[in-house]
Amino acid sequence: MPAPPERVFSLITDWPRHREWMFMTTARQVGEHAVEAYTGVRPFGFLDTMTITRWEPPRLVLMNHTGRVVRGRGAIRVRPHDGGSRIVWAEELRLPFGPLGRALWPLGRPLVRALARHSLRKLGALLHRTR
């Protein structure tokens, strides 16, 4: 990303600004350690509720996804890299719909990856515009 880790981390964890870069997602902080994100266009979408379990600005946030659809763990790490920053965003999620969800995942994985790349490109462009 074309910005120092402090700026990148600050923007990534500015939950209401997710709508500016994350595909079809709005988010908000709902408590000291809780975040809600809605992905989709109501009523077609899902609510992702999260609990922040570790907060180490400007380099790390760990979360537990606790919603009905999205459950599991997530981590966002921001590190200095080549005059800017590198983001490592990892999710370990339990897929919804049990065996059916696991069977369909190979079909959905390329779309999820493409949308994640699209969102991160938008984040980079936003960081570049708001220097």
Automatic annotation (TrEMBL):
<protein>
    <submittedName>
        <fullName>SRPBCC family protein</fullName>
    </submittedName>
</protein>
<dbReference type="Pfam" id="PF10604">
    <property type="entry name" value="Polyketide_cyc2"/>
</dbReference>
<dbReference type="InterPro" id="IPR023393">
    <property type="entry name" value="START-like_dom_sf"/>
</dbReference>
<dbReference type="InterPro" id="IPR019587">
    <property type="entry name" value="Polyketide_cyclase/dehydratase"/>
</dbReference>
